[in-house]
Records
---
Amino acid sequence: MSVTRSATLRSLAKINLDLRVLQRREDGYHELRTVFQTISLADVIEVAYTAAKRTRFTIDDDLQIPNNLILRAADSALHAMKVSAEVRFRLKKQIPMGAGLGGGSSNAAAVLLALPVLAGRALPIEHLMELGAALGSDVPFFLDGGTAIGLGRGTEMYALPDIRREPILLLTSGIHVGTAQAYQSLSEKLTSQSVSPKINNFRIYTRTLMATRSAGAASAQSANDFESAVFGLHPQLKRLYDRLRKACAKSVTVRMTGSGSALFVVFESIAERDRVRAVMASGGLNEDARVLSANLVNGSGYRQLWRRQLGAHISSLKKQQPRQRQQWPLQSRYAT
């Protein structure tokens, strides 16, 4: 009788600390320059893996998300490992959908990281990255987490050194911004803009971020090219942006993440974040809006999280040499 191996996974959200949109590529996508950052807001995925002669997936998802990336990622992982199994998922959704926080992509990456460990197989990070890119542009980032520069479509990743785990505030409006619509609105403005200043300003931002190791300190140099286009499409979102700016100190920068619609602020202190949260929550928000507290999660914190949640299924750290302890992705204790 096959043994069932289970794990509970926290699937973290992301924000774009900076996002520049350049010219349209020959493949129809736009050339991007962005800095991805994992944050502590998370969905919870319970997964149970049982080796079987035939593959079968089931998912308990209160939202009944169509074409759920969890199932697509599971199918990709089992196919790549050349195994069959019954895999059961339960998804507890906490990351607002359609807000630019990457919840679906994070869910897919969580499955790609966890299933090889539960199955006792190894998939190199390069292979996982290929699988992730086929599922969605943001998925490869969540396979490593922390802070990373994204180039091209956003799938070409370069990890950055750890930055501070600063407190942040998220304001989600309940407004769904269609990515295609946001790009279409932005594209009308791109033809009259020079690419060189954008690239230079992006370099200034990343250098400031690395010099200070603080997203808050670097935020004055940040930008998100989608903001003007999305605010034009959704004036109510611009009003929320203005209200959040008014609630913050003048030295603090408010940004939108991705193509919207979530807004975020990085703070120097928890006390200041909580003060602004109280102001924003005091009234005047629509019933779908949420004001959420979170923290930045750097690369070290991201890997520690994964070691904790898969700890029962990975090789004991005490028995490993220092170099082995740094291996990524995590190695299964069931591997033969």
---
Amino acid sequence: MKSNLKNDVIFKTFFSRKGNEAFLIDFLEALLKVKIETIKIEQEVNLGRFSPEEKTGSLDVQAILNDGIVVDIEMQVDDRHNIIARTVFYAAKQMTRLTSKGEEYENIKKIIMINILNYELFPFENYITKTVTVMDHHREYVVIDGIEWYFIELPKFRRSRPDMEKKVNQWLAIIDDVDEELIEMAKEKNQLLRKVKAEFIELSGDEETRRLEELKDKWERDYKSGVSYAMEEGMRKGLREGLEQGLEQGLEQGLEQGLERGLEQGLEQGMEQGEKNKSIEIAKEMLKNGEDIQKIEKYTKLTKQEIQNLKL
């Protein structure tokens, strides 16, 4: 993948790196339209402690602003058709994690979820969408403001002829890294952005960053390959067994009824077997990477004995 901020490893590493706080503050001030006095970035990137699902998903940047507002930024290049459910789940998870036991509801920290997408999500041309939760018959009345979501759709930004006097558009031109004219205009109008290109070129040449990119790419390819093979094998086996059972039942109950039931059973068994094979493939990969059995049990739902058998 090209070394720019749409590469989620580079994105995470760049904005989480100590010393790069000014870049994140500049971007967030432009998008959120707030003055950021203090910022605390949660953690620097470490792919080794992420779950398998996260390794094949997207890496997010987490920061705490000013009086405790929590911001989570995620770069997603590919459309996995789950971004809405995913970001709602992550927001709820963040709120739970950051709330102390017995804490009053009014003291719960505000969560802002920012999703930068390299694909189109909504059926309208606005490329920056902010959500609010309002009353059904009083749309002007905001009921829930503890969580806000921002969705930024880069393909729409590209064709919008953006106003480059706006700082947020300057940042999007740099992040998108497609239109050279917009990139040059952004760097001309915002001196801080002149340093961005050099910074992530340095990051892309960094040995640790390259290792993270290679590891994530390997997880992605192995996961897709394993899931595809497991699902195909599971479906074939399930359909074969289901058809055999259906033919036997067809001799007694009638061929048409038996085949129908056999196909239903075959599809069900195929899906179950496919999911089991997927878990086995993931477990094998985790064993190769030295993960302990307890962690593998948690993420694959395989039994301890099944995992130990994979070592043989």
---
Amino acid sequence: MPANGIALIDKPAGFTSHDVVAKLRGVLKTKKVGHAGTLDPDATGLLVIGVGQGTKLMNYLSGVTKSYSTNVLLGQATTTDDAQGEVLETAEKSLIESLDEQQVRATVERFTGKQVQLPSRVSAKKIGGKKAYELVREGKEFELEPAEIEIGRIVLSNFKQGEFIEFDLEVDCSSGTFIRALARDIGNALGIGGHLTGLRRTKVGSFSLDDATDIQSAEPMTMLDATKQIMPIKEMTDSEARDISFGRALAIESPERFLGLVHGDRLVAIASGGERLSPKTVFND
């Protein structure tokens, strides 16, 4: 039987998110595999992968909070806002030396909360159906629109000051936040430029890197277990499960935006709440 559910993968450096999906198709012997949220090839960490009918759950991960562990270097700006790009400008030594840890910490903390962020030009932000980094490769001119993001938590550690200023950050942020742009903006706010030197994603919603495996060891969690981590669930009677399976709404009021409807150990459907439960996604046996 083909696998159905969600696999949590610790993506290695050098792999694109598409590479991980392609390899998982072979490991799990199914073509129906898709991911929720890309990671840059040089980034590592958590990829949430839908397998079989689990691909239908990916839509319900849109907008969830994500967490990252990242390394930042201040004093040098690059074309890609990370260590892979060409150096655009290096700050004068006197400017770097004029800053102390307290000033850097105070600036970093100002990035907590809602704000407008301009994505990096080599990001996966789509413009007219194409990703920004694809347009850069093609040498095309384009303008990026700023987007509203929210950073719920940002913690600085391992501060070092020498030729440049380097430190680690732990960041909890809204979906759509670009961490390399955050490193750039912190450097610009201090007047010395900056870029990302390392990135590892640690959480996507309630899914954690602690539960992830390498690609070859992937074992998808069941549809029911996966759904429990995404939204509340509700047990259905035999007749309710039958009606929902045929796409009929149930005269049950619920304050939840989405609810996983369960019959026994089987996920029957995802429904939207309100004055009644209306099926949005129905799952086959």
---
Amino acid sequence: MKYGDFKIELEERILPFWLNNYDEEYSSVYGRVDFKYNIVKNADKGCIFNSRILWFLSTCLIENVGNNNEVLDKTNKTFQFLVDHCLDDDNGGIFWSVSRKGEVVDSTKHTYNIAFGIYALSAYYRATKNKKAIEIAFELYRLIESKCKDEKGYLEAFTSDFKPLKNDKLSENGVIANRTMNTLLHVLEGYSGLYQATKDEQVKTSIIEIFNIFEQNVYNKEKNRQEVFFDLDYNSLIDLHSFGHDIETSWLMCWALDLIDEDKIYKQIDPILKQLSINVLNTAVKENGGVINECENHINDETYVWWVQSESVIGFYNAYQRWNIKGAKQASINNFKFINRYILDKRKGGEWFWDIDKNLNPTSHKDIIEEWKCPYHNGRMCFEMMRRLKNDT
């Protein structure tokens, strides 16, 4: 597993696939490509999807990946699509989804969605120095802090004018959650991207607050895992261990810790992240190198999901680099081999299957592109591993 392996994956497979599926007529990537690679031209476009595309393309510019002129053109168009169609100029925030032409389809506001807007706009600002982008990012940050949280932490779903709404979009496994680990993690990610771009002290204070919520309410000290779904008082609603989210958290929070560079918070949080990665390493890795999805009520879901594999490659390598955890480096190597053997869709040579079953077959036949399936996870894996392997001795 070398720097060049990830550079090839990114420049010769992932990036060309997404550029080739760019909707030139209405900007941004097509909202849906089915399992057989048929483009569903008039499919709606999720605004999280658009933000993640903007983040990915912006990061390609930052890292000088691909043809800069082509990538810059697509990045600018994707930014403009967000500004023209995804933002709510009347009530603030970002809509949940729009049509291919940019007409509002679902006006729900969701904290998770808005956080990804911040993340994308911050990366776009870093790539282009577009002041409008960072101004919008700060507007979204202030909106989350003023309308999407209470005295105990961050809330989830709202109507277009920010009245509380049932959180069915980020609730799964038969529960409806008032708070989720997933939203907290990605608000942290969005804020960390904003802090990386600006070094704003108020944003830093918010990041520290999120770390405290994570330690006090989300991390289960007895089980060395995160709880996933909560009521308003942070009572866990289900016995669920999400292996993918735990390994993602283990490295992503390390990035945020290093950005803010606060010794007290580092000593408080870093040991927790180490334990999260050890637990996933010991419980979710199979002999074939793949990482299974989750464990609910002591029953493993042995599906191998594309994004879980992406996060595991980074997370295990981070565990090796940061804490020298035994077996972590090899787990990262084996997981990348697993991806190339089973998750990479060799029919077209570019994108990945959504998932494969325990028999290693893509039996679900889920779409290759849809509102949750984009180059955010596997693209980020390549960016992260290229950075780490370039300087790794």
